[in-house]
Amino acid sequence: MTDNYQVRDAIDKETLSTVRSVGDTYKYGFSTDIETEYAPLGLNEDIVKLISKKNNEPKWMLDWRLKAFNRWKKLKQPDWALLKIPEIDFQDQYYYARPANMKEKPKSLDEVDPKLLETYSKLGIPLTEQKKLAGVIEENHEDKSENRKVAVDAVFDSVSVGTTFKEELKSAGVIFCSISEAIKEYPELVKKYLGSVVPISDNFFACLNAAVFSDGSFVYIPKGVRCPMELSTYFRINAENTGQFERTLIIADDNSYVSYLEGCTAPQRDESQLHAAVVELVILDDAEIKYSTVQNWFPGDENGVGGIYNFVTKRADCRGRNSKVMWTQVETGSAITWKYPSCVLKGDNSSGEFYSIAITNNMQQADTGTKMIHLGKNTNSRIVSKGISAGKAQNTYRGLVQIGGRSQNSRNFTQCDSLLIGNKCGAHTVPYIEVNNSSARAEHEATTSKVDEDQLFYCMQRGIGEEDAVALIVNGFCKEVLQALPMEFAMEAQKLVAISLEGSVG
Amino acid sequence: MLNIDDLKVSLEEEEKQIIRGLSLSIKPGEVHAIMGPNGSGKSTLSSVLAGKDGYVIDSGTVKFDGSDLLEAEVEERAALGIFMAFQYPIEIPGVGNMNFLRTALNSQRKTRGQEELNAADFLKLVRGIAKDLEISEEMMRRPVNVGASGGEKKRNEILQMCLLEPRFVILDETDSGLDVDAMKLVSKGVNNFSSSSRSFLVITHYQRLLNYIVPDFVHIMVDGRIVKTGDKTLALHVEETGYKDFLQLGKEKN
């Protein structure tokens, strides 16, 4: 089986020159010239076995994957979203790619290929145990994060290349490692929780992920522990024509707390690439998870060529009493986004919050939102969604609020605002509200507006250029959500909002 | 400083000429007031000088320090030193006053090739100005003009003016919606700011503002033209007799 590898040079000269000519429009568009090993093209049982073998997985894991694969063969790709999805040939993809020299996983960060370290440092993510994420604006004098640490798990194509601050976290009892390591090192935890929030057969893309996921992050916060630093995973797709299927599992045991950040970028290529991730959060009694995403996959060019197809299933299971989860997402990238981070509020008094900014420009399409499933008593949910469309983009908010018959005294508040820039784009709001309990209350507010000419003129009369003025107004529109992000991400996100809207006016 | 020569301007959306042959010359240090009835084209003139969209220049020229002002973008005009205090200051939800002011100031400095002002110097500068205009810290923390009263909004305009230090200021009906106390405060701000190198174009319906901001010249505008120019006593005359004498003058010129 191992001889089945194709080893080839992953550099694409044309891509590099395109990136250079396009300049700064997508600043993460570079690719890394590194020898890459691919699994054979296409998807079949042998590929699933190969991926499992590459990760030296135990048999139970392989069986789980095969069960998922057999199920997936019977499923159909969903078509209910307001998206025009070009036909995806699932046999014309690579399902596994890893830097050749990652065959033996480096034991420490010192052994990681300098080219990989350089890639992450170019992305602003130093894989050294420094105090903070780069990308924080230095001039911000009120920056209190000076000495805040952020632990990073870096996933490059199909594998995790390194995790920082592992030892320091371990001494606090926190487990933070790649999921492939967790399967080997902590099989009892993985067996207990993997697939317990997003089951194998949940949906087409989640099922595909269960069969072929190659790596991702694993976090376990033990009882009573407040994680001493922010944890983050940085996903980078580098290899061509390769899908990335990562799986993240975070467990917050009783009375624990963790804040987790996720970032993603990919090189600029003419071919679209598939990204189908699954994130499962388990929150037990009195525990809390904050999960923040800044998604900046390559969005395709202004004519809609290339870009990432982002089909992601994220779900939090608030199993425990008084458990809390907060999803915050800033979605600026991807050609297509299909993503509904959800909260299942099982525990009494549990609460779920969803803060989202989704920006689509040029030919981008996004159908994103959340699901709040209220099952326990006195559960609370809050949804704040800000959708921004520019160019010829289409942006849909789709959200479900379901309050079950036993969910006494539960509350939901939804605020859903759309902003249009120009007159060729679209914004759509599709709320589903199902309340089966007379003591429950659900509120929904929605607005759609255009970037106001008078606001623009006012800013410009004060000397602010048109694009900066749009960025300022849009950042103001998004403020509630930006404020929900951890400081490091809020600054980055604010800049990203401006970059994503470049060329949207005039 | 500013030279307007036989300017004719129509609305973009309907073929209606609003300014119909207007000439005006303003030198450094001068305060000019333009008065006129509703619909005479006063606000159109200020919009055109500031560079707002929606107008077509049919003919004529506007020179600022000798260069063609009409060719410059809105933000370039601002960086050249043109400031317009709005009749109805615009609200920008979610954008804090401080952030807005700093972005504006540093954008202008950048356009002029000057170094950006650092946060500490900026704060010191703004706080000094705000104090003079009796604008509270709380107000400064709010989003731009959101939830502000009419008087607060106008004071905010004057604060922006003092911070950005323009050389040519258009006050577009700044007195509208102000009570006497607020008008005194705004006028004090303007008068403290005036100097021999700065000029003002004060657009107003009523004479009362001109008791506080005293003009060197008063122009009466009717039907898109200046029909009469005089000193500050002309404004008092208007206050007594209204615009009816001048309407006739406008018709004669047609």
Write up what this structure looks like.
- The complex is a heterodimer of chains A (506) and B (254).
- Chain A has helices at 13-22, 45-54, 59-72, 114-122, 166-171, 179-185, 187-193, 204-212, 453-461, 466-477, 479-482, 487-500; strands at residues 6-9, 35-38, 97-99, 150-156, 159-163, 175-178, 217-221, 230-236, 247-252, 257-265, 272-275, 278-283, 288-295, 307-318, 324-331, 336-339, 342-345, 351-360, 365-374, 380-389, 394-403, 411-420, 426-435, 441-450.
- By secondary structure, chain A is α/β, with parallel strands linked by helices.
- The longest helix of chain A has 14 residues, at 59-72.
- Residues 1-24 and 131-147 of chain A have low confidence and may be disordered.
- The model of chain B has no long low-confidence stretch (mean pLDDT 91).
- In chain B, the strands form three sheets. Chain B has a six-stranded mixed beta sheet with strand order 6-9-10-3-11-12, sandwiched between helices. A four-stranded antiparallel beta sheet of chain B has the order 2-1-4-5, with helices on one face. Chain B has a two-stranded antiparallel sheet with strand order 7-8.
Largest interface: A-B, 25 and 34 residues
- Sheet with most strands of chain B: 6 strands, mixed
Number of E-state strands of chain B: 12
General shape of chain B: globular
> What would you call the structural class of chain B?
alpha/beta
- Overall SS class of chain A: alpha/beta
Radius of gyration of chain A: 22 Å
> Whole-number radius of gyration of chain B?
18 Å
Instruction: Give, in spatial order, the strands making up the sheet with the most strands of chain B.
Output: 6-9-10-3-11-12
**What's the multimeric state?**
heterodimer
